[in-house]
Design a protein that fits this description.
single chain; two-stranded parallel sheet; three-stranded antiparallel sheet; alpha+beta; 145 residues; 7 strands; Arc Repressor Mutant, subunit A; 6 helices; 2 domains
Length: 145
């Protein structure tokens, strides 16, 4: 269980009682073995990280993961090491004779779940095309739940 509070940093500085309240909330959560996290305008994702999270979030559901495609992508990245994202997608589409949209969906699902890793603070896509500096590498095995 986690409790996340979102606030503005300047407000916390103006009202010291908010820090006290946060400390009490953190202690209460710890007693229940919960996690208490405070997010501020200074700590929330922004820039490339925010854009990537907004894109990838839509592909988190298992419906976007074709196991056949996923296993191919993971094996390819394991065998080659870091590879350009666009090259991975194009090669998978050509080899598997699948539409690029299916490869994209599975690839983005794997990135969201850390099966494939990327530099999240670097923008991955511009106008639906992978940027030429976006590389992926192997993260972890696909779990077939």
């Amino acid at each position: 269980m986690e409790i996340h509070e979102v606030t503005v940093e300047s407000r916390r500085k103006e009202k010291p009682q908010l820090i006290t309240r946060e400390q009490i909330a953190a202690e209460l959560c710890a007693m229940r073995q919960w996690k208490y996290v405070v997010h501020t305008d200074e700590t929330l994702p922004s820039g490339g990280l925010l854009a990537n999270l907004q894109l990838l979030y839509g592909y988190r559901q298992a419906a976007y993961c074709d196991t056949y495609i996923a296993n191919f992508l993971l094996a390819m990245v394991q065998n080659t090491g870091p590879i350009w994202l666009e090259a991975l997608i194009n090669q998978a589409a050509e080899t598997l004779i699948k539409p690029i949209s299916e490869i994209y969906g599975t690839c983005l699902h794997l990135i969201w779940h850390s099966n494939l890793l990327v530099k999240m603070d670097q923008l991955l896509f511009i106008d639906t095309f992978p940027v030429n500096t976006a590389y992926v590498w192997f993260g972890k095995e696909l779990k077939n739940d």
